[in-house]
């Protein structure tokens, strides 16, 4: 059995599939202080056996950066070129809040007394001007008190010789050493140093977590562990421990991988992935069955309606699935501000105590409580977890009439999530009306039609096991290893050299390209090195609406080595039979006696006209009036306008 585990902010989802195609699923509350315990308990309770491989998405890197209790970041020392110890504090002098004179820049990840200058120098052409003195460096490193070492020298992306010498010495005294030419061999010393330092901060935390998980998995015959990377591929445990900076957006990437695979299976050219869980909602795009990738990311900062405020966090130069994320999940708290205005988020009730309707001690009403109060959701986990409707109504009534509050809160959440979708479509030169919306996550199918109406999208697809879809998506992820080189001189030769460095059965090529004189690049896929300018200008025109009569400049090329995973086959729905139907009152601008279906009973080609509710183990699907749903031959529910 291959088992995929997705540890989210609220739930831990596990999906396993054996050689006969039989699927085993489990969904349980996350154990935030020790997430490996929740994984272990889920494998036990879900009766997963004969585990041959564990595929894992984890939020531990993100949580550590955001300051979760019991995940304090370790102390890191930075070794850098003489005269450049303040690079990570100076940054780019961005003004994230232009009219806020009291804005505080994020605190440097390494305090000044832990930054050490090394007397070395490499010029912009890669020539060594000053070679390091090994004896001096050895004496310095021996005296440093820290948990990990980060090394980032000027222009090491062209010539890393000095970094290699210092790294070799550092590894005699420190277990965790992060070196910039191994982590982010790219120009821009601030972004490269920030990435290297973040990697050093995460190395002890991620390594210890994976070691603890590996120890617990001895009860399951110690299967190999593969981790979902932010780029949408799987990496092995050793790679994740060495370069943990690449698993910061581990969980959200998994769902997009699943959407890319299934959009091709269903012959859907363009798809929007919409993942709404217990804490956040995420949106991404799949164009021509390919995941959109970005190399610019910032962690630990502020976001405004899904848009990261540049300069408010710590930049990371690593490939990431292009995602937008907003604070709108089932556990997002509904409240009123000092002026009496209704607000939704950004705070979440999380897994503990959770929404009021969980009856676990939650005091603040949430979006889940709103759906429970309106009759849209009655229970979770196929009735295993009954929800307290009366408690939800009482909580909402503290803010006003519960129906008005719940309805208005859902509309506010839809506006916020609509902004997230626009960020990855409209602001990338894409028209959302040309896309199909794939909705998943425990809460996604409850809001999918609302969002489709707001964005002008005509078709919604709800995949099998939507509340466990990120875990399911990992089962279709390929193993993916990355290498890069800056300022290539012979494109074809340099691409081939990178391909020789990484393991793979086939390779994907990308290039960071800009017009001469531009400050920043666009990352484009490369199918033919002779067509790079043509491809770049086509994408530039889509995003910005114009092209320039200038030569282009390629700053960095990168290669992904792909090892295809075994593609599992999902069980088909039954082909005949009539589902049982029960009724309850559900609010759709008015109270309507609404049919309630069990998804497992729905045969293929069965049609349902809204209003209707479809319940299943991991989620509840809301079909509004004037929309209809049909179950296709693969078990997906396709919803469209009547």
From TrEMBL:
Domain Acetophenone carboxylase-like C-terminal: 513-639
InterPro entries, A to Z: ACX-like_C (IPR049517), ATPase_NBD (IPR043129), Hydant_A_N (IPR008040), Hydantoinase_A (IPR002821), Oxoprolinase-like (IPR045079)
Domain Hydantoinase/oxoprolinase N-terminal, chain residue ranges per copy: 3-173
GO terms of biological process kind: glutathione metabolic process
Pfam families in UniProt: Hydant_A_C, Hydant_A_N, Hydantoinase_A
Signal peptide: none
Any single Gene Ontology cellular-component annotation: cytosol
Record-annotated Hydantoinase A/oxoprolinase domain positions: 192-481
Gene Ontology MF, one: 5-oxoprolinase (ATP-hydrolyzing) activity
Protein name: Hydantoinase/oxoprolinase family protein
Originating organism: Acidianus infernus
